[in-house]
């Protein structure tokens, strides 16, 4: 093998290492679309209680804070879906804003979904922060936090 | 330098480049797979967060500017979303005051240069003249930028009274 050829291999490997780090090679629009696609899959899976999809999207150590200020683990959240304690009666979220930091995306938005949690129906709109991290090539939800929007009296 | 010696030198450089590149790829993939809390990172984040609270109490705007990312999204317990300029202005103007700071019950999840910190706050806060002593759950997202952990997202939710 010639020195020139080995040099080429070295340069290609260097370029690949940059891609692996994924810091800025993917345009932000494409990243937004990828994360929205993951969100659409999650939304559908929540409504159908599709545990396989939810298990794939929620990271193993996901940190969830619900609107009651309760910290939930992945196992607790998935159990809520599986048992039917948490049901989405309608799904409506939008008003998104994205902030992209390499392989981390912070997605903020507003949810107007009607949710039944342990028998109680909640229609109060909420603000949320979802943090997605690309792990082994897939966007996984690593943090989810929700707060009810204070309604004017 | 003979042609043979020159080629040997090139070969060594090429091999070194390959090793460095493969090493960098290894670092990147290990960051992707890293989930375990790292004591040093936790300490660094807690130090940054303490510095942030200290700066809020002293209205040290230069420190606050340094400790918050430009793309900061801050969602308070009323579900109001603030950007960095709005959040810092609330502190500068005195609309948001921390009368005491008390946080505990932390959970950390580290993913390379991204850290999720969740916890409970019992700080006493005065917001637009109304004092709030209710405990809250918060989630903070820190990103390491230029060697420093900065806050890029924060959301706080009041802990509901279980009797309701």
Question: How would you characterize the overall build of this protein?
Answer:
Chain A is an alpha+beta fold and 153 residues long. In chain A, strand 6 and strand 7 (120-122) form a beta hairpin. Chain A contains four helices and nine strands. Chain A has one domain: Nuclear Transport Factor 2, Chain: A (Roll). The model of chain A is unreliable at 9-25 (pLDDT under 50). Chain A has helices spanning 3-21, 28-48, 51-57, 74-83; strands spanning 58-65, 71-72, 86-90, 93-101, 104-111, 114-117, 120-122, 126-135, 138-148. The radius of gyration of chain B is 22 Å and the shape is globular. Chain B contains four helices and nine strands, in the order H-H-H-E-E-H-E-E-E-E-E-E-E. Chain B has helices spanning 3-33, 39-58, 61-67, 84-93, and strands at 68-75, 81-83, 96-100, 103-111, 114-121, 124-127, 130-132, 136-145, 148-158. Chain B has a six-stranded mixed beta sheet with strand order 2-1-9-8-5-4. In chain B, strands 3-6-7 form a three-stranded antiparallel beta sheet. With 164 residues, chain B is an alpha+beta fold. Residues 18-33 of chain B have low confidence and may be disordered. The interface between A and B is large, with 53 and 53 residues.
Number of distinct helices of chain A: 4
Largest interface: A-B, 53 and 53 residues
User: Which CATH class of chain A applies here?
Assistant: Alpha Beta
Low-confidence stretches of chain B: 18-33
- Total strands of chain A: 9
Task: Specify the number of helices of chain B.
Answer: 4
Q: Report strand order across the widest sheet of chain B.
A: 2-1-9-8-5-4
Radius of gyration of CA atoms of chain A, rounded to a whole number = 19 Å
Extended strand count of chain B: 9
Question: Largest beta sheet of chain A: what is the strand line-up?
Answer: 2-1-9-8-5-4
CATH architecture of the largest domain in chain B: Roll
Distance between the amino and carboxyl termini of chain A: 78 Å
Please name the CATH topology of the largest domain in chain B: Nuclear Transport Factor 2, Chain: A
Overall mean pLDDT of chain B stands at 85
Any idea how many domains of chain B? 2
Query: What is the total number of structural domains of chain A?
Result: 1
Mean pLDDT rating of chain A = 86
